[in-house]
Write a structure and sequence with these properties.
This protein is of the alpha/beta class. It is built from nine helices and seven strands. Helix 1 crosses helix 8. It starts with a strand and ends in a 15-residue tail after the last helix.
Length: 261
Amino acid sequence: MSSQRILVTGSAGRLGRAAVKELVARGHAVFGFDLRPTPGLPTPQSIIGTLQDVDLLNRTAVGVDAIIHLAATPDDGRFPRGPAPDDGDNFIAELVPNNIVGGYHVLEAARKAGVNRVILASTGQVVDGYVEAGRMPVRADWPTHPRYLYAASKVFLEALGQGYAHAHGMNVLAVRLGWCPRDLAQFAQIAADPDAQDVFLSPGDAGRFFACAVEAKGLPPFAPVFVTSLPLRKLMYDLTPARELVGFAPQESWPTGAEAC
């Protein structure tokens, strides 16, 4: 596979670092875009900015072959919410500017720069209603059934990506990612919950998926796919589309790599 220029937003986060590591190992020229420096990248390729820095984002996208968009507010401020008056949420303050408006800025930067492929980070939470009802494995072509506000912001991002793919001739993958723990508290949560272990996504598998996604040939204009590591007990999401579309098959399972959060 020839070297490509890849822009990774959210590149200093847990999944971003995994993507950068694998892409660099495969010889791609990787540019990070995050609030802080990206480990593993030289300073000129580690861009410091926010998704609201539209001019900077647009300049960074010029000459890029693919964008992996991971930057986001990663969850609801609280779930479940309590009764009033202690019932605040993070929708207006964080989810709208970062996940909804930010996603728009990324897709606009891709459109303006002529970037053909965009991989959008979504979440298994967009189909949580099926999991709660015991309807598993959840198929990627079922209608969304989001858990709450964070998941709803990702439903919007998927729809936005589909719209840009249709209107502007892009290849857009909406990747419904499993759970890669960001810190020791999340590590403990997964360790205590067998169901969470079945949707665990190891850093190694995450990096391999993103590399497969940018290198794959012949993708449809838009597709949602689920990506997790190998389940220990039961298959929660149908992983077939990721294998058929980009050639990805998970190699690891809980807790491989989780302790390195």
